[in-house]
# Entry
Amino acid sequence: MPHTASRWLAEGPRVGIRYFGYDDGPEFTARARESKDLHQPWLFPPDSADAYTAYAGRLIEDPTKAGFLVCEKDGGGIAGFININNIVHGAFLSGALGYGAFAHAAGRGLMREGLDLVVGHAFGPMRLHRLEINVQPGNAASVGLARACGFRLEGFSPKMLFIDGAWRDHERWAITAEMRACS
# Structure
């Protein structure tokens, strides 16, 4: 299915972002299967129809989550995905980001452009104040993306998340609306 400009929540020169849809399953899961060598051991996106439906359903239906697809505007399809999880309103106005590029798009700067759009959307229409990214220290590509998009290293959390059968250490990177306004 072509991704038209009218579907973008925000767009840059090469990519647009839009929400996940159930009908994105076939393309998303095919890209996930093609990208296993890139993702593992860091990330395990859904690669079957049933797994995608459950995953997308949580992002679509749970108000504490927002899932965005980063899509190439030139018809290249889904380049990656960025999710805001654990969205808290009230005095906190915060969310935790997770993301992944697909192999055909990796290293091309598309995710940097997409993450910048998601951060702008989060601090604009979503009215959040702070976003945090938790990255395993050995995941150089994810650390580089966080740094390139203006996130600052705030700390280290030992054994923070259970991934691939073990509790994994993570670095905490964050950005606030004020930090973004200064960049």
